[in-house]
Specification:
mainly alpha
């Protein structure tokens, strides 16, 4: 019989990979990996501000990540290159977050848990927030699927179809902020981007349609969640990094399989 904290940890990991699996496909298709890193760095600032003002970590991370995303869109709209804007915002947010934590007594240990994740410490309230966030992300993506796909394939085609690509980009950035907040307790700020990119990249070898890739990405993430949690319990390793390592192993296997099929 599994302990309650293990069951909650597995359920939290599953809720996270459901959200990151589908959204990660758009991150891969749009080559937004660096943007995901920027959101993860913004999460560190969000955690620091949450600790400073004694508010919910989830609220602080979501608000901070959305603010960073909006500033990024303003900078790129004003002519700044995307990579330069992301570099400035990501590292500035990370540095400011670390400075704030250094000024707070007793906050360093709390920040460490959010940097590397601690899925086995997830409570029932955390579980409700994680699965609630996952349902919101998947629901919005399902609702806007065709518009998001069109804007991803060709902004010009999107304009011709009456779709505003900038609006779709803003929607994706907001969903990314939500996913970062949901995933921070599971894999930590340093590994959130990995959970977005690795399952989606692995699923490319397993599917021929965008919808199939999204489903395959969730399946890969689910396998990684189970395998990583089991390995963590067996070898007494950090659960979040163990899940990412398991996902990387699946990626390696699908890549080898794709080479053999070619």
């Amino acid at each position: 019989m599994l302990d309650d904290f293990v069951v909650r940890g597995v359920l939290a990991a599953l809720g996270t990979v459901v959200a990151t699996g589908v959204l990660g496909c758009f991150v891969v298709w749009r080559r937004m990996a660096y943007f995901g890193d920027a959101m993860a760095h913004a999460a560190v600032l969000g955690v620091a501000l949450s600790l400073a003002f004694s508010m919910s970590i989830y609220v602080g991370v979501i608000i901070t990540a959305i603010c960073i995303a909006l500033i990024f869109l303003q900078l790129t709209g004003a002519g700044q290159t995307a990579d330069a804007a992301l570099g400035v915002l990501a590292h500035s947010a990370l540095a400011l977050g670390l400075v704030i934590v250094s000024l707070l007594s007793g906050a360093k240990l709390s920040l460490s848990a959010y940097l590397f994740g601690n899925v086995l410490s997830v409570g029932t309230t955390d579980l409700a927030i994680i699965w609630g966030g996952a349902f919101v992300v998947v629901g919005v993506l399902w609702w806007q699927w065709s518009h998001l796909l069109t804007a991803t394939l060709s902004p010009d085609l999107a304009y011709a179809a009456g779709i505003d690509p900038r609006r779709q980009e803003l929607l994706l950035t907001i969903l990314l902020a939500l996913v970062v907040a949901v995933a921070i307790k599971v894999v930590g700020a340093l590994l959130i981007t990995a959970l977005l990119i690795i399952p989606a990249s692995a699923s490319r070898q397993l599917a021929r349609t965008p919808e199939g890739m999204a489903v395959a990405s969730i399946i890969v993430g689910t396998l990684a969640a189970f395998a990583g949690t089991q390995a963590s319990l067996m070898f007494d390793t950090p659960t979040g990094p163990s899940i990412v390592v398991a996902a990387a192993c699946v990626f390696a296997a699908t890549t080898i399989l794709g080479r053999l099929r070619a």
